Amino acid sequence: MTDETPRPPQPGDPGGYPSPWAPTGRPGSSWQPGPPLSPPTTPIAVPPSDVPRPRHGGPVVGAVVLSLIVGLVAGGVGGAVGYQLASGGSQSTSALDVPAPGAVPIANLPAGSVEQVAQKVTPSVVQLRVHGPQVAAEGSGIVLSADGLILTNDHVVQPAATGGQVAAVLQDGRSVPVQIVGRAPTFDLAVVRAQGVNGLTPAQLGTSSTVRVGQEVVAVGSPLGLSGTVTSGIISALDRPVRAGGEGSSQDTVLDAIQTDAAINPGNSGGPLTDMQGRVIAINSAIAALGSGSGQVGSIGLGFAIPIDQARRIANELVHTGQATSAILGVTVPAGRPEDGAAVVQQVTPGGAAAAAGIQSGDKITKVGDRVIDSGDALVAAIRSHSPGSQVTITIKGAGGATRQAQATLGSQQVGTR
């Protein structure tokens, strides 16, 4: 296929309809401590009053005074003994008197803990601030090299692509200018370079080919402008086709996404989703949001990230050529959600991979390899998850209902730009 499906109105498009899919761009208030606790007051000692000597001829008064003195002394002794018994013979210690424990050394953090992952990954994440001619935005980026190569989402830097500016805020607080190296809107990926820097900490890239549903993950980024924010969760689903919007119908972005319930918010875009060894397995890109009229609020735990295996290939092409390529089958299919449990072929591109494999208009594609295809978007995402030139097995249900398989060698389409 051209792998370009007819594009419905997108969120943010003039005249577009609201969509639950929204790309992920600002700051909150800080907590102020209350007044310190007042120290305890010191008891004030009251001197004993003078006791008059009993006069001769006043035995009754003397006896009363003597009894009072004995009573006071006896009461004082009893109180002292009672205090000693109650306190165990020594003054009790308050929790406020106990010294604070020292910080746990990084080397001693529990292996595979969120703490350890945060310590490893955070130095390799930057905040990106973008100022375009008509819009300002914020996002995150992943350091690829010590001299400033950074991987991020295309929608983060797109506002600056036509004359705007991008700055990267590094972990030490420095803000440095950034130059766009290359963009791939179809994959919602871009590579930029921070200017005049050295000694940055590159992230460790893992693989997305072995991730599993239920696997624990950590997300790092700058949600709502709060840099260095760490959240955690699990992988909720794989191979999720997500239509996240693009720059126009010819560049409509369908993500072959990893779904996670780790909290992802505007500003997390372009930041890493990592495994529990701190290896980047995906690039956070989009969230599902409830419509404003739904009457529901709060996190709904639906975030989507671009698999790192796909992102690595695209980033390499952008770094070395400034361009990127996408695999293409050579068919046109309807856009949107599942219909008839397949992707229905509307047109076949003459001379394309599908035509060479014998795929015809009206065929219903139900699988690519072992991956079930239930919509046009699912087919687009599945094809784009492969590299150009890959051989794939296509399962087809013909117009008469018979099922057959075809071998297709995927073509190539240029999708990147400087």
What is the radius of gyration computed over CA atoms, rounded to a whole number of angstroms? Answer: 34 Å
Judging from the principal axes of the Cα atoms, what is the shape? Answer: globular
Report on the biggest sheet.
Answer: 6 strands, antiparallel, barrel
- Oligomeric organization of the protein chains: single chain
CATH architecture of the domain at 216-290 and 298-321: Beta Barrel
Main structural class: alpha+beta
Strand content: 25-35%
| CATH secondary-structure class of the domain at 216-290 and 298-321 | Mainly Beta
Number of helices in the DSSP assignment: 6
What is the terminal-to-terminal distance? 25 Å
- Report low-confidence residues grouped into runs of 5 or more: 5-86, 246-251
CATH superfamily of the domain at 216-290 and 298-321: Trypsin-like serine proteases
User: Mean pLDDT, as a whole number?
Assistant: 80
Order of helices and strands: EHHEEEHEEEEEEEEEHEEEEHEEHEEE
**Helical residues, percent:** 10-25%
Kindly report the CATH topology of the domain at 216-290 and 298-321.
Thrombin, subunit H
Biggest sheet, spatial arrangement of strands: 8-9-10-13-12-11
What is the total tally of β strands?
22
